[in-house]
Amino acid sequence: MTAMTRRTLIGGAAAVGVGALTVGVLDGAAEAATTSGALPANVDVVVVGGGISGLVAARQVARTGRSVLVVEARDRVGGRVLNHRLGTGDTIESGGAFVGPTQDHIIALANELKVPMFEEYVDGKSVYNSSGLLGRQEYDGTVPPDPLILPDAAVLQYQLDQWASEIDVDAPWAHPRAKEWDSQTLGDYIRKNTVNPSGIGNLINCWTQPGFGADPDQLSLLFVIHYVACSGNETNKGTFERNSNTADGAQERRFIGGSQLIPLRLASQLGSRVALNAPVTRIDQNSTHAVVRTSRGAVTCKRVIMAVPPELSRAIQWGPDLPAAHRALLNHMNMGDLMKCDAVYDEPFWRADGLNGFGLSDHGAVRAAFDNSPADAKPGVLLAFVGGSTWKQYGLTTLAARRSAVLQGFAEMFGEKALHPIEYVEHDWTKERWTKGAPVAIMAPGTLTTWGRELRKPHLRTHWAGTETSTYWTGYMDGAVRAGQRAAREVIALT
Ligand SMILES: Cc1cc2nc3c(=O)[nH]c(=O)nc-3n(C[C@H](O)[C@H](O)[C@H](O)COP(=O)(O)OP(=O)(O)OC[C@H]3O[C@@H](n4cnc5c(N)ncnc54)[C@H](O)[C@@H]3O)c2cc1C
């Protein structure tokens, strides 16, 4: 594929000014989301959470003529999807950003809402920054060419793909080896089954820290196998490469104008059916109805769709309480630790040096770097994911110390110019009251096999959405869409 076609705009609406697009409304509701005042006393369905999953669910319910209300704790929609306006006026994402092949649901939604995509810059070499004898290396392909790591990496990748291909994404706990895999962490497995455990263990951090906000020792092997299995769709089995790659992988494309345009446009279609500044504190249910209590008043409804991260679901008071097994599941689904750090430059200077802006390092604050420049490459932006134990090291230090460490990491990969950005921005999701971490809730050993069956099991009149409940692309925007659609179908069938 040529450089030109790699960066073509996708979505057909590229020629249309993003701000000028008219978004269709549902049955003529042209009002905006409400931010204060009393909520309607009665609706058919209350959706808790105005992230992508909740908004998708609400729209699907509303399209059937049922009355619906989204109650959102924050003063904005989008949840883990959040645009950030740079000093230059350009937009980058503080949260979810990338999409790729087999993520058909988020891509179809973006196309419908006329949010165009562009391909991530992939021309040129990637950089691997090793503290070992090899030092800094430029390379092509997926895995850094470190001879001390390559054999283990190849076997591990093959093994994960093989096991992932055997797993039922709906029921990973049903695999004959599920208990064995769920009784160890990915870190345990690596220590017992590789030639150079510290080498491959260190490299795999460059995948788990951005992808889970966690280290291999925090992740059940079964959970990781399931995550790989989920990196596909009904016709293409999930693979490690599709999950981790840029070209032909989950990091292949971004949205022009930023991914938050998707929830913003969904909310604009829903209009006053979205209530902001309305955190849910308690949900009471009986055989005939449910009452959802928020800081803006109570709403009585026939069904509830919960579309919030697991840590937030368990913080709500439930009457009657959640079944013990479901509460145990939620208690074992804590969010990862992750922040995004971006450095902005007049131009993406690394491209002139034949580098694509992707880098991995076995040390320092920048374990994984991406070219995060807008589609027109003005300005140039480098993005670092700081997650897991790297977040514990750098996330808790001062802004000045972290900025310096991040720029140093970029400079080791892409040269001294990286030390002099025109702007530096960061977003720490562990500090977000209504998310509590990022990018996804993680599972330690024992969780999936003991309580996994509870994931999508309704609790009386309450149904579960949110990306964590998806069977494909769980943890991703695509999973959020899928889960919202599935929960809406459940509720529509019963209401
Ligand atoms: C840093 C980062 C990077 C990421 N990178 C990618 C990526 O590149 N590609 C990708 O596909 N995905 C990525 N993700 C993941 C993706 O953003 C999420 O999977 C997706 O947005 C989750 O959507 P959701 O609707 O399920 O949940 P959320 O977006 O978390 O929405 C839940 C909503 O519920 C609200 N809420 C919480 N508690 C309450 C309450 N008590 N009452 C009312 N409302 C409440 C919250 O405010 C929030 O708006 C990333 C996420 C982060 C944070």
Summarize, please.
By secondary structure, the protein is of the alpha/beta class. The protein has helices at 3-6, 52-62, 104-112, 150-166, 178-181, 186-193, 197-212, 221-229, 240-244, 261-270, 310-315, 324-331, 349-352, 388-394, 399-414, 447-451, 477-494; strands spanning 9-10, 42-48, 68-71, 83-85, 91-93, 117-119, 125-129, 136-139, 253-255, 274-275, 280-285, 290-294, 297-306, 317-319, 334-335, 338-345, 355-361, 368-371, 380-387, 423-428, 441-442, 462-464. A hairpin with a 4-residue loop joins strand 11 (280-285) and strand 12.
What can you tell me about this protein's structure?
The chain has 495 residues and is of the alpha/beta class. Among the domains are: 20-79 and 260-322 and 459-494, FAD/NAD(P)-binding domain; 82-123 and 252-258 and 337-431, Polyamine Oxidase, Chain A, domain 2. The chain has 17 helices and 22 strands. Strands 2, 3, 10, 11, 12, 13, 14 and 22 form an 8-stranded mixed β-sheet that branches. Strand 7 (125-129) and strand 8 form a beta hairpin. It is globular. It starts with a helix and ends with a helix.
